[in-house]
Specification:
Elements: H1 3-25, H2 32-58
Helix pairs in contact: 1-2
Length: 82
Amino acid sequence: MTQPEVLDRNIRELQEWMRNAWIQLADPTLTAFSRRELRNQMKQHGADLRQYLLAASQRPPEPSAAPSKRFAKPELRLLAWS
């Protein structure tokens, strides 16, 4: 895997983890200690996610696989009926 692919995979995994953590945080059977621990983990993972997103935004754009189309000005001819 290339560096951008690894970075994208890490971002997706952290986003999924955060989504599941929010769902778990809404569970009414969670104890106060468990909630506190989960919130602490969410803060750490949120900081990691911000770091990965910053790195992803600073990487240069990937060149497109398809060559860019160049459109030339067509040669026009005027035809006159006499």
